[in-house]
Amino acid sequence: MKPLKAKTIYIIVLLLCTLHAGAQTLAWYDPVKAPQSCINGRGWDSELQGTYTRLPNRMQKNMPEKVWKLSQNAAGLTIRFTTNSRTLQFKYTVVNAPQLPNMSRLNQAGIDLYATNNNGHTHWIGNHMQWNWGPDTISFAFRELETGEGTYELYLPPYSTLTSLKVGVEKEATFNFCPVRTDNPIVIYGSSIIQGASPSRPGLMWTNILQRQTGYNIVNMGFSGSCLMEPELFKALSEIDAKLFIIDPIPNSYRLTDEEIIKRITQGVHQLRRKSNAPILLSESYPQPDITFNPHAEDRMRSANKALRAAYESLLKAGVKGIYYQNSQEIEFTEDAMIEASHPNDIGNMAYAKAYEKKLKEILH
């Protein structure tokens, strides 16, 4: 055997032994088999046990097909746990799906990790490219952590359907899943921008930024390309005992006529009011960041914003209480806030979160 070939074989065997040894030192925990529910961000937690989905099965027959399919994605779902392990590994399987052209793979199918130490300070933990992207099984490793007895929050991929997930920690380490949050959530209904398009990673979705900045429990009801304010959606939303509802429909609903926008949002608000007295915040679309040299690209979007405003003013005149409004200029975009003038990048998602945080303080103070 030639020396170079023998050396190559030796290195491969050594690597395999090292990987096997590493796997042997980890204990694995499955969130869906936890003693108590631990998957946050769902409006129907008791009906969704054993899954990483967002709508219960009983709703499938009445939901628009695209909405139902997107509800299988894990947008906005998080898992909190405590451990003193210096090594963490996550292995999960997803339904194979084509890569979206306007989104990083890390955001579409990746995970994101934050931790809070004993002093109450929350920090992001980077993966440093210690990952393995299989065709259906993906793994992320985090090593040599100095968190101590930290509380971790794992953000799941917003545009993937998870079929399994396991958390690996050192065998001698302590580990516990945190119980699911039970405080009334902020329920956010909207388009792909709410579902998670298109920051670089899941933790930078504006709904997830808002969750960290405010501490509120968030339920993400974003459906990419499919926020058309159908009665079935508002009926579903009305089942959630919300702290506040955010309705941000125009990035998709601009495709409807002005008359239909007014009709659907008016009926939707009345549907929510029949079940809930929680505040309702209606929001216009984002401001167009490239308007200087392309001033007419979103004329229809701006017209749809006016229709939403008309519906809001009509609801006020009809005596509907507890409704609020956010205009597009309150979302303070720079020209660098979007990836293709339809979806916010990291900068744009931060601007979204900032605008909504300010609005929530005004409403909930």
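The record above closes out task 2.4. Task 2.5 opens with a second protein, given below.
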Amino acid sequence: MSDTAPAEDLEKQDMTSHAAPTQRRREVLLLLGPAIVYLLAFSVYPLVVSLARSFQSYDTQADSWTWVGLGNYRELFTSAEFWDVAGNTAILTLAGVTTQIVLGTALALFFNQQLRGATIVRGILILPMLLTPVVVGLMWRALLNPEWGLLNWVFVETGVGQVGWLSDPSVALWTLVVVDSWQWTPFVFVIVYARLQALPVEVFEAGAVDGASWFQRTRYLTLPLLVPAIVFAGVFRAIDAFRTFDLVYGLTNGGPVHATSTLSFEAFQNGFEFFRYGYASAIAYVMVVVAMIGVTVLFKIVNPRKLETA
């Protein structure tokens, strides 16, 4: 009997070892199942369907789809309006994100000086990014109103005169950049300031002992150590600015004369106002490809992991 007991124990262990992977697979499927179903239903399926629609044209009268191949993309790339809108999107993304990174980093360095009352001011500073972009657009539209807006009233009273913030095509896009920067500079500030608080104090103390001034410590110590946080904030904001829609919808509605229209707003107008769903899908897929290429190239040029370990 003593000889059969070890054999039975080995057989039980063997059965348990075979059953354990199966049980783990079931647990993994049970835990990941809802997330997988969600991704398939609300991410993969819309992407596949919209890709197919970008090669089709919708007839509103017949309520039917017609295969046009690359017709939507051919029309897209030969349209002067599309290139104007793409230029607006590029200006909004590059100018806006650059402004936000510079101002956000400067604010983080400023509030790192342990000033009196800085906690209260920091709390007020992040309020704009808590607002919905549509609300921000409507609020600034009221402030910039040419008849009763506060900003134009100040300019008139000081002798500058009225400015067509939202009616002048040469000014409206830069107004959009300013409003976008006003709302999202606090986001960059929070990211950079959090990184700044986590930097080792010994490095800066050693720099001070060596006789380095505040500007030298900032230039050669602080900023290089902040680069990973700045890159993260810049990439995040660039992707978000590239697909800006709600701020445009609330502030300018794409006007005047498409001067502030972005690719997202152009896709919205063609899809839900002009019912050109195939053309709108083509615009959306051009945006996806451009965003993928842009982020890949940026991470090839600036690798946050290498900077982190440098």
